[in-house]
Write a structure and sequence with these properties.
alpha/beta, seven-stranded mixed beta sheet, five-stranded parallel beta sheet, 22 helices, 30 strands, binds 5'-O-[(S)-butoxy(hydroxy)phosphoryl]adenosine
Length: 712
Amino acid sequence: MAENTEGQFLEPRGEQVSEAQIAVHWREEGYVPPPAVFIGQANASDPAIFERFAEEAFPECFREYADLLTWDSYWHTTLDTSNAPFWRWFVGGRLNACYNCVDRHLATDRNKAALIWVPEPESADPVAITYQELYRRVNEFAALLRDFCGLQAGDRVTLHMPMVPELPVTMLACARLGVIHSQVFGGFSGGACGHRIADSGSRVLITMDGYYRGGELTDHKVKADEAIEAALRNGQEVDKVLVWRRHPGQYASRVPMAAGRDFFVDELLARYRDQVVPPVSMPAEAPLFIMYSSGTTGRPKGCQHSTGGYLAYVAGTSRYYQDIHRDDTYWCMADIGWITGHSYIVYGPLALGTTSVIYEGVPNYPDAGRPWRIAQRLGVTIFHTSPTAIRMLRKLGPEEPNKYDCHFKHMTTVGEPIEPEVWRWYHSVVGKGEAVIVDTWWQTENGGFLGATLPALQAMKPGSCGPGVLGIYPEILDEDGNEIKAGSGRAGNICIRNPWPGIFQTIWGDPERYLETYYRKYCKNPESKDWRDWPYFANDGAVQAADGYYRILGRVDDVINVAGHRLGTKEIESAALTVEEVAEAAAVPVIDELRGRVVEMYISLKPGVAPGKEIEGKVVTAIETEIGKIARPRTVWIVADMPKTRSGKIMRRVIASVSNFTDVGDVSTLANPEIVDDIRHHVQAQKAARGEVPRQLTPEEEAEIKAFGQAE
Ligand code: WT7
């Protein structure tokens, strides 16, 4: 280990898993070629495309993506780096995102379904919304936003909506006006929504009264009231709450509508019937939306995405990597409340004029055959989901796909590494061996894919996302900024050497944090205006095999990836600390067969407080209230004290090791080493009693656990 200075991100404090062990475990999977039928129809099947996007062609190569859009005025500068690393793409250009996703398709595809919405209750039929109908709805709602709410270009609006067609209608209506939308995942709590309202400075909240999930019509409006209160506590007043109704005319919530503040959209819309609102021509650099995501510190980061660069990038990657054609029926089973849904349910597919499916509910409702029934009924040709969903559907219904006449030409995965074994089930059972699989690595900050195979031209390799996508030049750096030899299979921090059109513009209201989090670490010269001096630090660990394919190892910034979604350790801990009895809190990841990682919470109590189930329950409630059910810890462990360094820092890696039954390493330098054995006995005995002993971890997983909590 001593002579190897590379791959330090995995072992920031010396010791731990050796590179050799990782290399041994890194068993090369064989290539799987794309089916000939796929190649025959692919959007990108001529290898000349690699020359067009070669580094020498950067940044002009991205004209090809921008040319997929309709511009009101063409740009004069493809990439302006004068205020590096605040990149400006397609400067001088003007366009409207809604026009590009709706209006321009009317001439040829007016009567084609833009969206097909599948309600969760299976007794309800799917609802197809044509481009013409989408146009009408978006215009009416844009008129309402403009005339009733007084919104105009540059204003921010928070959306807290479920998976219903009213969500893309709302987003596109905002885009039509140049209003910046900030959709908060519907599963987040009212409190979490309120913080985002305040951070973005929204004075309008758009929500829905309820929606179906797991067979229940949930009360969602109740969260709006909590959000308004939380926003107010954070200094932001909301003057209007627009409430779409899941069943127009029927109110699904038990909380009253606040007079003068809350309005039913279906009632208001009557005033705007058949109104047409001209799309506002926006500069390419105008923000299109904000999407919040988690990082090392407690506050979620509002990732600000541009109009021109973002839309060009999602259109281009949808075309080449998802192979979307206008006559496809494309279904991405993600939630629009995450970046995947923004880019690859709404903006990318609609910019290309295809049919995008929106499913309201959970994949296994009422059983694990549901997605395949939907695919069969709608004739879905492209299917897109996460490894967590695949693992779950495989566990619950390994034979289900065989029962249905569904045939995909293309299937995407996103959000987490996929185990080769799970990949093979996806390929042979879900895809029936007929589909290509594209494993897409990217992040909220990125707008679109960074690492993936170009499906007709690059063979698949289970477990690897593939090389950098067109126009993206990754590199792996060690902690000191030295490049880890390309193709060496050694681990380090994956960075992107160049900017790209889909990259976020800044963190809303906090440019300093943008610089600090993504660029400070590896910037070669802070005065430089040359993009080559500003590699983008993705905060992910990765290895690159000799063939150039990357394998993503996971976050290096104390973010826990639960079911493909980022949860910040600090956010969960701050939530636990709102419970009066809690003195200290530490959240750690535990390897989980289905969800990738789950959260376990360790707390110590204030002097004189007796431990008990009641406090554990309060901690769970606090986390659900502050963040949402997605962050619910699997277990809350009450301990007498936390293992700490002499300077008082909680050693999260030690408790993470306990929770995962891995070696805690050397604890002799701790201030209270004796506590470690106490915690271990207590926690592991209880876990053993519940049958919660995990399988043998892989060396990568072990390394992740041992490095956990070191990012501060
Ligand atoms: C983190 C980003 C934008 C996609 C949805 C999640 C992990 C993402 C992969 C993949 C291995 C992946 C990374 C990344 N990740 N895709 N194909 N293979 N890991 O977006 O919430 O911003 O999370 O998800 O660790 O940094 P996000």
